[in-house]
């Protein structure tokens, strides 16, 4: 699946990534278990949109994320990679407090959005989630019409008062999600009737209809075929002009293609954050290198 | 004897096995040879036994009738059955010998002899069939004989027959109800039954008695049934649905672990208990309250009321609606809830706008499944709703239902062919058709719903 999408675009980056993989093949397996001490690279930026310090996440007794410090800049695309079960989704879900829905989940540390502590006890999560939208791994359109799927968010947040305004929001959201031309004649048919890729773009349209500032994406392409994946990746590039995007992906090629910075997680620790080019050509940490050269994952 | 056949078959196969070089050279394990021999011993004799038991009455009666003197037969004129019954009664000592005419006594003695022979013959025939059957298999046992396949086949057959029994019984009941109903409709026109407004099924027991013609307009029963069922649904659907929503969306684990079993216990209470609760507690309370509110000036208030029966029936159905809705709500994928929450919905928005619409078809199915239970419920209405076939929409008045009338029509001594008895079958047929229809519709909807999320 990745191979094909890879051929479509960004061959450049991958080619530059491969030699380094070959070079470092000699690193022994003992390097993989190298002690993780803090985060190497550039986790901090000057004008952070989201500022996270000392984030620990527990599921009951079990800790899933360990003392993560990370800044996310306005209008950047940051991707999070790492072996499965390393806490990427858990960490991502902290940013709009989706972990609140899991009873046993507990979050420590501070996360600030534009200087506002989002874990403050009195904070209402409803407006927060309107500012920080989320796209999930499996496309999950509501069992409503395409129109109503997109109109759902603006309606519950009272963003529009007139029907004509709502029509406009729906159309522009679908356009920005690259879905308008495919569905404009059947806005009344159910969203669940679309193909997987279309459903995922519908979910993206649904998210941007609320005009969030940040969009979190948790493996948005893992259920899609290569062509649909390529479309979503293109879309992410366009969206980054207006939104701050944090994307979890299991595909390193995808991270390389869409993101400005890449964060590598390992067993709940944030090991390395760097410019994407650097992570894939000359990573600072041995674990990162071992992962991107495919020695585990 | 069956066990004997089993061991005979097994030992023979073992004997043969040693001849050809051991058990592995047999087509099947010795157990199967034994089992097949046993099966051939048991099943044919059982079949003969069954047929015999069905048939012998007929032959014996005929023999008795042949025995009776012409004069006696002429006396009763075509009612041979009565005489034969008398003969049986005398033979079994139910009727004292002294009271019966001589020829009956003679016939009864003859009958005893015939019965004795009948039993003997049956025993001999069955035994010999059993022996023949086992012998037949016993002879066929060779190393190549595929006893295993045959035994598997028999096993399959037994399972199939068991499966058929339930279906065939149902079909049988349906047909008997259907035929009796048709008989009823030859006496009372179907249009009168379905559209008549007056129900008073009392038939004269003697010819020419006063007020001898009953009237069989079932509309008051249908209205009463629907009224009570509607009240029950008005109680059960919102309560059940809301408790399901609470349990599946809000309640934490500890509460869930408490409330769910409690609801299931509620579902296990026998309806007769609900019945006397309705009759002794709820109905008087409602009557007193109606009078207390001064409603008796405007409408009849009876001590047995549709409202009492409906309320209690509603309580009875709550666990049913609640557990069905709970299942359906839980089947709504978590990803939909996450999607809605991720857009900044509140919990109640998620439920109202996403979970309930997604679960609606399944919930409708659950409600439709609850309907037949309300319509078919008998005990509560017998005790709390009354017997008077009032055509009324007043929930404080006493009404009667289809099930109640079936009970009252069939309780007590009845001549089997009177329209009164047959009316019960016609009512049963209506009930059957309605509940079957609702059930079918409900299951269809629920199935459609399940497919949607698979
Ligand atoms: N709902 C949950 N309850 C308990 N443990 C969980 C839950 N979700 C995730 N975990 C645990 O947290 C760890 C990180 O999981 P996750 O964030 O899903 O990893 P990733 O997305 O990187 O594959 C895993 O060990 C997983 O078992
Ligand atoms: Mg994940």
Q: Topology of this protein?
A:
The complex is a heterodimer of chains A (297) and B (454).
Chain A: H1 2-8, H2 11-23, E1 40-41, E2 48-59, E3 62-73, E4 77-81, H3 88-94, E5 105-113, E6 116-117, H4 125-131, E7 132-135, H5 146-156, H6 163-176, H7 180-183, H8 196-208, E8 214-218, H9 226-239, E9 244-248, H10 252-258, E10 261-266, E11 269-275, H11 276-281, H12 286-292
Parallel strand pairs in A: 1-11, 4-9, 4-10, 7-8, 8-9
Antiparallel strand pairs in A: 2-3, 2-5, 5-6, 10-11
Helix pairs in contact in A: 1-9, 5-6, 5-8, 6-8, 8-9
Chain B: H1 2-20, H2 30-67, H3 70-76, H4 80-92, H5 102-140, H6 147-187, H7 190-195, E1 199-200, E2 215-216, H8 219-250, H9 253-268, H10 271-292, H11 306-331, H12 334-342, H13 347-376, H14 379-384, H15 402-410, H16 419-452
Antiparallel strand pairs in B: 1-2
The complex binds adenosine-5'-diphosphate and magnesium ion (MG).
Run of helices and strands of chain B = HHHHHHHEEHHHHHHHHH
The SS-based structural class of chain B is mainly alpha
- Under the CATH scheme, the architecture of chain A is 3-Layer(aba) Sandwich
The multimeric state of the shown protein is: heterodimer
Q: In percent terms, what proportion of residues of chain B is strand?
A: under 5%
Under the CATH scheme, which architecture of the largest domain in chain B would be assigned? Answer: Orthogonal Bundle
Mean pLDDT of chain A: 86
- Can you tell me the CATH topology of chain A? Rossmann fold
Largest interface: A-B, 28 and 21 residues
Q: Characterize the overall form of chain B.
A: flat
Radius of gyration of chain B: 32 Å
* SSE run of chain A: HHEEEEHEEHEHHHHEHEHEEHH
The CATH superfamily of the largest domain in chain B appears as: MetI-like
Question: Which labels suit this protein?
Answer:
heterodimer; A: 297 residues; alpha/beta; Rossmann fold; four-stranded antiparallel β-sheet; 11 strands; B: 454 residues; mainly alpha; MetI-like fold; 2 domains; 16 helices; 2 strands; 76% helix; flat; binds adenosine-5'-diphosphate; binds magnesium ion
């Amino acid at each position: 699946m990745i191979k094909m999408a890879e051929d479509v675009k960004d061959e450049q980056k991958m080619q530059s990534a491969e030699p380094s993989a070959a070079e470092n093949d000699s690193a022994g397996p003992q390097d993989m278990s190298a002690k993780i001490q803090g985060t190497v690279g550039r986790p901090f930026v000057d004008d952070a949109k989201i500022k996270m310090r000392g984030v620990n996440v527990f599921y009951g007794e079990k800790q899933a994320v360990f003392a993560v410090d990370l800044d996310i800049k306005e209008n950047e695309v940051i991707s999070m990679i790492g072996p499965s079960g390393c806490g990427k989704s858990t960490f991502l879900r902290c940013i709009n407090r989706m972990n609140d829905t899991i009873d046993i989940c507990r979050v420590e540390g501070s996360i600030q959005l534009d200087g506002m502590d989002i874990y403050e006890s009195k904070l209402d999560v409803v407006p927060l989630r309107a500012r920080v939208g989320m796209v999930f791994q499996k496309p999950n359109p509501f069992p409503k019409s395409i129109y109503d799927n997109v109109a759902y968010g603006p309606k519950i947040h009272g963003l529009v008062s007139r029907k004509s305004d709502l029509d406009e929001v729906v159309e522009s959201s679908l356009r920005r999600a690259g879905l308008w031309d495919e569905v404009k004649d059947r806005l009344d048919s159910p969203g669940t009737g679309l193909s997987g890729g279309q459903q995922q773009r519908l979910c993206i349209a649904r998210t941007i209809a609320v005009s969030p500032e940040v969009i979190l994406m948790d493996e948005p392409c893992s259920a899609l075929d290569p062509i649909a994946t390529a479309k979503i990746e293109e879309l992410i590039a366009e969206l980054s002009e207006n939104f701050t995007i944090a994307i979890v992906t299991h595909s390193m090629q995808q991270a390389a293609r869409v993101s400005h910075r890449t964060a590598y997680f390992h067993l709940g620790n944030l090991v390395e954050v760097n410019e994407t080019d650097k992570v894939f050509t000359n990573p600072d940490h041995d674990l990162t290198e071992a992962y991107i050269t495919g020695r585990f994952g | 004897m069956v066990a004997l056949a089993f061991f005979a078959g097994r030992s023979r196969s073992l004997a043969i096995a040693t001849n050809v070089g051991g058990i592995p050279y047999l087509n099947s394990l010795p157990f199967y040879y034994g089992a097949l021999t046993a099966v051939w011993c048991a099943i044919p004799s059982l079949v003969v036994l069954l047929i015999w038991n069905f048939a012998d009455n007929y032959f014996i009666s005929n023999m008795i009738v042949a025995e009776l003197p012409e004069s006696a037969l002429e006396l009763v004129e075509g009612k041979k059955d009565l005489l034969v019954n008398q003969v049986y009664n005398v033979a079994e000592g139910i009727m004292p010998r002294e009271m019966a005419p001589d020829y009956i006594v003679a016939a009864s003695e003859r009958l005893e002899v015939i019965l004795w022979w009948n039993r003997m013959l049956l025993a001999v025939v069955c035994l010999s069939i059993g022996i023949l059957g086992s012998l037949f298999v016993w002879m066929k046992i060779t190393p190549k004989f595929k006893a295993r396949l045959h035994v598997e086949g028999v096993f399959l057959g037994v399972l199939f027959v068991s499966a058929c029994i339930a279906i065939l019984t149902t079909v049988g009941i349906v047909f008997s109800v259907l035929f009796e109903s048709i008989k009823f409709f030859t006496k009372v026109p179907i249009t009168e039954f379905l559209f008549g407004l007056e129900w008073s099924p009392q038939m004269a027991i003697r010819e020419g008695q006063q007020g001898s013609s009953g009237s069989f307009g079932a509309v008051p029963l249908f209205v009463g049934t629907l009224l009570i069922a509607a009240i029950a649904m008005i109680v059960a659907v919102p309560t059940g649905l809301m408790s399901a929503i609470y349990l599946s969306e809000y309640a934490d684990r500890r509460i869930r672990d408490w409330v769910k079993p409690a609801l299931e216990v509620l579902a296990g209470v026998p309806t007769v208990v609900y019945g006397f609760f309705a009759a002794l507690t709820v109905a008087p309370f409602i009557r007193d309250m109606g009078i207390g509110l001064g409603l008796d000036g405007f409408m009849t208030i009876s001590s047995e009321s549709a409202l009492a029966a409906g309320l209690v029936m509603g309580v009875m159905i709550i666990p049913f609606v609640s557990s069905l809705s709970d299942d359906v709500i839980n089947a709504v994928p978590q990803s939909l809830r996450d999607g809605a929450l991720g857009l900044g919905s509140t919990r109640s928005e998620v439920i109202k706008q996403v979970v309930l619409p997604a679960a609606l078809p399944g919930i409708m199915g659950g409600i439709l499944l609850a309907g037949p239970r309300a319509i078919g419920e008998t005990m509560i209405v017998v005790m709390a709703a009354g017997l008077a076939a009032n055509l009324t929409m007043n929930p404080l008045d006493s009404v009667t239902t289809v099930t109640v009338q079936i009970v009252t029509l069939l309780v007590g001594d009845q001549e089997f062919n009177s329209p009164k008895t047959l009316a019960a079958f016609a009512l049963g047929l209506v009930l059957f058709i309605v509940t079957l229809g609702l059930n079918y519709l409900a299951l269809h909807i629920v199935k459609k719903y399940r497919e949607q999320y698979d």
